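Support case: 2-acetamido-2-deoxy-beta-D-glucopyranose complex. Customer-provided input:
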Amino acid sequence: MEIVWEVLFLLQANFIVCISGRLPISSSFVWSAQQNSPKIHEGWWAYKEVVQGSFVPVPSFWGLVNSAWNLCSVGKRQSPVNIETSHMIFDPFLTPLRINTGGRKVSGTMYNTGRHVSLRLDKDHLVNVSGGPMTYSHRLEEVRLHFGSEDSQGSEHLLNGQAFSGEVQLIHYNHELYTNVTEAAKSPNGLVVVSIFIKVSDSSNPFLNRMLNRDTITRITYKNDAYLLQGLNIEELYPETSSFITYDGSMTIPPCYETASWIIMNKPVYITRMQMHSLRLLSQNQPSQIFLSMSDNFRPVQPLNNRCIRTNINFSLQGKDCPNNRAQKLQYRVNEWLLK
Ligand SMILES: *[C@@H]1O[C@H](CO)[C@@H](O)[C@H](O)[C@H]1NC(C)=O
Ligand SMILES: *[C@@H]1O[C@H](CO)[C@@H](O)[C@H](O)[C@H]1NC(C)=O
Ligand SMILES: *[C@@H]1O[C@H](CO)[C@@H](O)[C@H](O)[C@H]1NC(C)=O
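Agent response - structure generated as follows:
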């Protein structure tokens, strides 16, 4: 059944939603719309239109249904974005990323949150990152996976308009200024997200292999399933490159706070066709409800506006161009592996 929304108005905190067109208005939707706003709970959003049942706001509506989320629609520094490599700027002051695990392995619990595969680290072994665009040290809080229903989509960020099959996001918070991720997420310089594109191949990244092997991934088939993993080495998740691209943006889920610095590694990691298939077999729902694949859990790209995209890749042509026409000749050569 086709659903057409034409108008959606919000009036201050008590919002009124006017919808024209055909929409299966369920009891929960009517309930939500008629309540005064406090009951718009923080989980009331989705990536895709729900096949059956209640109205749940998709990305273009996130900022409209809840006044606490208005940055999702009016924010000017939103994520993800499409990275046009020809517009990147080489920043010689970007230092290498430093990942500090204290030489220890970590353990964490892997969850099916209904929206993502999410690995939350235990608090006993901390992993910090610093360097790159960071002025503070940031602590790893969560590893989150986004992926597509087909290989040509799934990543949140795009590179020259091209999506990847998935994207791993390592979400860190500024532990020098804030006591936890919740507080940091709404505060200046709060978050640093390291993002790594995922491609499908014959081999598999050793860290992702731990998460996505059959024995493990099938334990979190349904929403709220959880599974403990031990002896993880975060450094194994990183691709072999020190090159990255960075810009200032936002969280890619409501409330879309503009507190995140993004660091996108200039090489992908790989997972096998079988592992990608297993991801697509994860359900957004609990076992008693219909199966709804978690795949395509990405927010569409947002306008870059006048933000600057910086990189530590020195793409200067060797010597021979004079400073004046250099700008024209600058060309970022994306790592071949990324574009293949
Ligand atoms: C991370 O930072 C905290 C606070 O500065 C520090 O106590 C801890 O040792 C650091 N951990 C690592 C692995 O560097
Ligand atoms: C996070 O820190 C804030 C401020 O210290 C505190 O009020 C809040 O309860 C903490 N939240 C969690 C989930 O620990
Ligand atoms: C960038 O590369 C050019 C040409 O190879 C070199 O002259 C320059 O020193 C490099 N800059 C930095 C900051 O490494």
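The first helix runs from residue 27 to 34.

Case will auto-close in a few days if no follow-up is received.
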